[in-house]
Amino acid sequence: MKATIIFLLLAQVSWAGPFQQRGLFDFMLEDEASGIGPEEHAPELPELEPLGPVCPFRCQCHLRVVQCSDLGLDKVPKDLPPDTTLLDLQNNKITEIKDGDFKNLKNLHALILVNNKISKISPGAFTPLIKLERLYLSKNHLKELPEKMPKTLQELRAHENEITKVRKAVFNGLNQMIVILGLSFNSISSVDNGSLANTPHLRELHLDNNKLTKVPGGLAEHKYIQVVYLHNNNISVVGTNDFCPPGYNTKKASYSGVSLFSNPVQYWEIQPSTFRCVYVRSAIQLGNYK
Ligand SMILES: *[C@@H]1O[C@H](CO)[C@@H](O)[C@H](O)[C@H]1NC(C)=O
Ligand SMILES: *[C@@H]1O[C@H](CO)[C@@H](O)[C@H](O)[C@H]1NC(C)=O
């Protein structure tokens, strides 16, 4: 029976790397602590599973990182190892993300899909990713963001897509934990009122190089927002309550970076009191001066 255990152990190691190996050791240690030898338990061990997912063809897998960039892939490879924590699919030709593409990846923390040709993401495609913290979708052809995002997401970047509007539903679907939202270089002309209220922990909002005509609503009431990039837009007016709450008693983190240059609004048209809640002058880049 001992031999079976060792065989199982070795088999686990060669399939899945050191992570699972530790799990099995823990299991054996527990057995020892309880005074029950592995012999008694051995008959209850699960049958040897059929050979599980291996590293997808031409990808490289190491320490739970699966690296499949620059392979000309037109879809997400099948049977990705379920213990993957980082999946890199950048610089491929993937056009669509389908439900089920990531169905086994319960341990995934970061997903890199930058520089593909993705124009469609099925609504439930990311929902199995219950530990996903970082999602990079920049340089694709997305016209909108999916409404259902993992609740663990802290950083979402979708720069250089074709997003035209940021709807409130997208913020509703994002989780409360999100800290960084990057949407630079799209064609965004508006951000729905009330969107920011759904992401109370947002610290960075990148909306530069879009087509916004006004400062997104809700920044003044937002407690933690510190970085707001709005340069290279079509903002012609900035109101005195766009960034700071009317009263001085409101608790609000100070801004560390706000950019408004390259907009039709001229810096001398912006009332100095607009930035009354900013304590570091250099945090504000109004420029059109160089
Ligand atoms: C958005 O909010 C601002 C300020 O509260 C308000 O003036 C504006 O009319 C609202 N816009 C829409 C479309 O609800
Ligand atoms: C900028 O906004 C104005 C309306 O405020 C609009 O007429 C104009 O077409 C916009 N310019 C661009 C480049 O989107």
TrEMBL record:
LRRNT domain ranges (all copies): 54-86
Species this chain originates from: Propithecus coquereli
Any one of the GO BP annotations: positive regulation of phosphatidylinositol 3-kinase/protein kinase B signal transduction
Subunit structure: Binds to type I and type II collagen, fibronectin and TGF-beta. Forms a ternary complex with MFAP2 and ELN. Interacts with DPT.
Record keywords, A-Z: Disulfide bond, Extracellular matrix, Glycoprotein, Leucine-rich repeat, Proteoglycan, Repeat, Secreted, Signal
Disulfide bonds: 55-61, 59-68, 244-277
Keyword Transferase (UniProt): no
GO cellular component: extracellular space
The family this protein is said to belong to: Belongs to the small leucine-rich proteoglycan (SLRP) family. SLRP class I subfamily.
Function text: May affect the rate of fibrils formation.
Lineage: Eukaryota, Metazoa, Chordata, Craniata, Vertebrata
Coiled coil: none
Protein name as it appears in the record: Decorin
Residues annotated as signal peptide: 1-16
GO MF annotation list: extracellular matrix binding; glycosaminoglycan binding
Compartments reported by the entry: Secreted, Extracellular space, Extracellular matrix
Keyword Glycoprotein attached: yes
SMART domains membership: LRR_TYP, LRRNT
